Amino acid sequence: MHVIDVDRDIMEINRRISERNQRVLEENNVFGFDVLGAIGSGKTSLIEALVGRIGKKLGIGAIAGDVISDADASRLKRCGIPVIGLNTGRECHLDAHLVEHALESLPLKDLDILFIENVGNLICPVDFPLGAHRRIVVVSVSEGDDTVEKHPMIFLDSDLAVINKIDIAEAVDASVEKMEYDAKRINPRLPVIKTSMKKGIGLNEIVDWIRKESNL
Amino acid sequence: MHEFSIAEDILEVALDEAEKHKASRIKHISVEVGGLMMANLEQLDFALRSLSVGTLAEDMEVDLKTVPGRFKCDNNHVNEVSIEEDDLYLALASLRCPECGSPLRVLSGKECVLKRIIAE
After folding, report:
1. Greater model confidence, A90 or A156
2. Is pLDDT above 60 for A192?
3. Tell me, what's the pLDDT at B77?
4. A122 lies in some domain
5. CB contact under 8 A, B114 and A10
6. Does residue A212 fall inside a structural domain?
7. What residues of A are in contact with residue B115 (Cβ under 8 Å)?
8. Going by fewer Cβ within 10 Å, which terminus of chain A is more open, N or C?
9. Whole-angstrom distance, CA of residue B6 vs CA of residue A38
10. What is the dihedral of CA B37, B41, B45, B51, to 10 degrees?
11. Facing residue for A91 by CB, picked from B5, B110, B113
12. A93 contacts in B (CB within 8 Å)?
């Protein structure tokens, strides 16, 4: 009979790889943004819109995570940026190990900014840092205006909250003000930007935030 | 279902340790799960049992325990606050330092520690 005192933090495995990923980005002068959010909240649309606005001045690349399919990766490739699509198979989140391999396949030397779009999910990705420097969480009014209060951890752990589809808030009976209030209540440090990717509302503010955070 | 990926990592470390000690069977593992992890213990238990079938850890006893999350105030007025798991999610939304009312930062509670293995 062996009693083995292991005392090892399992989450440390992912955390260590994520720190290594961040070092790889920094060695290549790339600033990384995680893009998290529910299914259909507008994560891919946000990246597309940002490429449209700053893609000519800055080198942008993306990693697009999906459970199955290359739909998001294909959309982003059509923007003319280097994209690695990651299929997680049965997993509901990306992990640092998957991202590590994707980084090997990206032309990091040509990039200034890397967006890592996670699988659509407001819960599971929270515990798995990937190596990006900042986290953006995207929610939309069509998920219901109680979405923010139901998922406090992701708002506590993010650096920017984007509330999308504000142009259809009335039609889906959602209060944008409530969503913003909830985000600020959970995390008073969190900047909140209200957007409509479709109509181009709020995107300049996001560009300003991205440039300020990345110093680019 | 990220409990499965956490369970996979726990099991991998446990099996490695068992192998290092030339054990032929893992009888028991104990794991401490931080109260701020977005993990459900029942699902984690199920995932560990499912993934261990056909390994040295099949039919092991699984002891999962939650460790409360800890926070620290911005102004260092108050130092740490412990919250029990049941109240955590309700408390998070309005969590402030009891002394100065400033927001709190997470100190710990996002760990998942494989504490001990009993093997033979």
Report:
1. A156
2. yes
3. 60
4. yes
5. yes
6. no
7. 5-7
8. N
9. 21
10. -30
11. B5
12. 2, 5
Closest residue, chain B, to A90 (C-alpha): B1
A39: in domain: yes
Percent of chain A with pLDDT over 70: 98
Q: In chain A, how many domains are there?
A: 1
Q: Which of A13, A127, A184 to mutate to test the interface with B (most CBs of B within 10 A)?
A: A127
Residue A11 and residue B112: Cβ atoms within 8 Å?
A: yes
| Residue range(s) defining the domain that contains residue A20 | 12-206
Q: Is residue A3 part of a domain?
A: no
Mark yes or no for CB contact B21/A4 under 8 Å. Answer: yes
Q: What is the DSSP letter of A119?
A: P
Confidence of residue A65 (pLDDT cuts 50, 70, 90): confident
Cβ of B110 within 8 Å of Cβ of A11? The answer is: yes
- Tell me what the mean pLDDT of segment A64-75 comes to: 81
If you search the block for the tokens 């340790």, which residue do you land on? B17
A-B contacts at Cβ under 8 angstroms: 96
Q: Per-residue pLDDT for A111 more than 80?
A: yes
Domains of chain B in start order, with CATH, are: 3-67+110-119 (3.30.2320.50), 69-106 (no CATH)
Any residues with CB less than 8 A from the CB of A122 and at least 6 apart, and which?
A36, A37, A38, A137, A139, A147, A151, A154
Residues (pLDDT < 50) of chain B are 78-79
**Per-residue pLDDT, A178:** 97
Q: Which residue has the higher pLDDT, B102 or A207?
A: A207
Report in angstroms the alpha-carbon separations of B1 from A40, B5, B41, B59. 19, 8, 12, 22
CB atoms near residue B59 (< 10 Å): 10
- Mean pLDDT along residues A182-209: 94
Torsion angle defined by CA atoms of residues A59, A96, B110 and B1, in that order, rounded to the nearest 10 degrees: 110
| pLDDT 10s digits, A31-47 | 999 999 999 999 999 99
- Identify the bridge partners of residue A137 per DSSP, sorted by sequence position: A36, A161
Give the tens place of pLDDT for each residue, A77-102. 999 999 999 887 767 888 899 999 99
